[in-house]
Design brief:
Strand content: over 45%
Number of strands: 11
Distance between the termini: 18 Å
Mean pLDDT: 95
CATH class: Mainly Beta
Radius of gyration: 17 Å
Number of helices: 1
CATH topology: Lipocalin
CATH superfamily: Lipid/polyisoprenoid-binding, YceI-like
Order of helices and strands: EEEEEEHEEEEE
Shape: globular
Number of domains: 1
Strand order of the largest sheet: 1-4-5-7-8-9-10-11
Low-confidence stretches: none
Structural class: mainly beta
Helix content: under 10%
Length: about 170
């Protein structure tokens, strides 16, 4: 891990950051879908074990693999992208165990509803990016939420209320 003497800001690389969500579909299988447009920034001070993050997901970029189902997910029963075009996660606190980032505490806003959500960080790697010739960091983070808590509870309990959010993120120090 690269050491830093002060906080460093990393800009999210939208070409390598595709948040996804998975849920149980009618008891048959777990379905996973993703978003294809993400932006934001992450600030890290690995010396003092602190940081912050802002992740902005274009809700209209939902990709289920089926254009008709993308439209269903975007309607007012679910994401309501006509009124809420972005999903945001904002954090001002990161939790470290020694020099390892283990969690990000913040607020998730979906469909105009903001709730505290802790992301479990399963990996964080920072090093020089071989193509961009700049410092870069990549991480994988997950959380479990209930979609009904974000005013998206249609078809519960048939379609699972509990969802797993996964955010694989790469960011470049600009």
């Amino acid at each position: 891990m690269l050491a830093s003497a002060e906080p460093e800001t990393y800009i999210i690389d939208g070409a390598h950051t595709y948040p996804s969500f998975s849920y149980n579909h009618l008891g048959f299988s777990n379905q996973t879908h993703r978003f294809t447009k993400t932006s934001g920034a992450i600030t890290l001070d690995r010396i003092v074990g602190a940081g912050s993050a802002e992740v902005v997901v274009d809700a209209k970029s939902v990709d289920t693999g089926n254009e008709l189902f993308n439209q269903v997910i975007q309607n007012e029963d679910f994401l309501d992208t006509a009124h809420y075009p972005a999903i945001t996660y904002r954090s001002a606190r990161m939790r470290f165990a020694g020099d390892r980032l283990v969690a990000v505490e913040g607020e998730l806003t979906i469909k105009g509803v903001t709730r505290p959500v802790e992301l479990e960080v399963t990996s964080l790697h920072c090093k020089s990016h071989p193509l961009r010739q700049r410092n870069a960091c990549g991480a994988n983070a997950t959380a479990r939420i209930k979609r009904s808590e974000f005013n998206m509870g249609k078809y519960v309990p048939y379609v699972g209320d509990e969802m797993t959010l996964s955010i694989p993120v790469e960011a470049i120090n600009e």
